[in-house]
Amino acid sequence: MPETSSNSSRIIDCIKVWPQYLIPQHGLSKIMYWLMRVRCKPLKNLIINQFINLYNVKLNEAERESVDKYVSFNDFFTRHLKKSARTWSLNGSSILSPVDGTISQIGKLDNNKIIQAKGKTYTIDTLLANDVDTIAKLNDGFFTTLYLSPKDYHRIHMPVRGKLIKSIYVPGNLFAVNNATVRNVDNLFSRNERFISIFETDLGLMAKIMVGAIFVGSMETVWLGQLTPPYIHQLDIREYKEEPVVFKQGEEFGHFNMGSTVILIFEKKYLRWITSLKSDDSIQVGQELGKVIN
Predict the structure, then answer these.
(1) Residue 252: inside a domain, yes or no?
(2) Are residues 69 and 168 in the same domain?
């Protein structure tokens, strides 16, 4: 019976995953980008209300509790929360969750490899677009992969105070980042489009990676604005030496315009994760993920 169940799960995964190799990922994401910004009030209200019911969205946590106050579905999807909706432990001795979501994986790099799923790993070399200096400093460090489902709050905050020193936009695929795809597509997060931000922090170097996905055709940061679309087909590397961009712990960093994934990587000698945290645990923005080691 267990083997039959396992075979059935693999078949279901294949049905979910393999069409993604054939569909026009970026084309469909452009269509979704347009649909999310339709301002026809009856249509956008209908979509928002159905979405709230389908995903059990807690709109009472949002600054704007009325559907009528959102000009489009995207405006609703990227909603701000009330300050009282989350508990923040703002201090220099904690690493905070930058998002609402689910812990996909959390742990320590093993020979620069990150766990993607059971039996699957990939390297930070490919994830970080072979940025040699960054990779050398993060060697054998700590990582966590955080998945944002459609129902989650989609703004991204700073886990610690940091000074931005470099950003790298990496073009790529737009595979989904759901469990079935994570289990079956090799090197998923280093194949997908992503935006890498490198920070100097009191914990040493930190890499923060926003990973794009199907229908996540748009990512934004507070200092650059909308990153995609339009899509570009080459690396875009920017250094921030003369005009540093500094973020406080907890400060808003950017957002996704649909659900996706954020990956954090820290240097090895400065922190430890909260031992009770494990894969599939739900987390909230501002929640303590780790402790600083003095």
Answers:
(1) yes
(2) no
**What b/e readout covers 201-238, taking b as 16+ CB neighbours within 10 angstroms?**
bebbbbbbbbbbbbbbbbbbbeeeeebbeeeeeeeeee
Instruction: Assess whether 220 and 245 both reside in one domain.
Output: yes
- Report the length, in residues, of the chain: 294
> What pLDDT tens digit does each residue of the chain (294 aa) get?
455 546 667 777 777 776 777 666 666 767 777 777 889 999 999 999 999 999 999 999 999 999 999 999 999 999 999 989 998 988 888 999 999 999 999 999 998 999 998 889 999 999 999 999 999 999 999 999 999 988 899 999 999 999 999 999 999 888 888 888 888 889 999 999 999 999 999 989 999 999 988 765 578 899 988 887 666 778 999 999 888 899 999 999 999 876 689 999 999 888 999 999 999 999 999 999 999 987
Give domain status of residue 36, yes or no. Answer: yes
Catalytic residues, by residue number, are 100, 157, 260
Co-location of 47 and 160 in the same domain: no
Determine if the peptide bond prior to 171 is cis (ω within 30°).
no
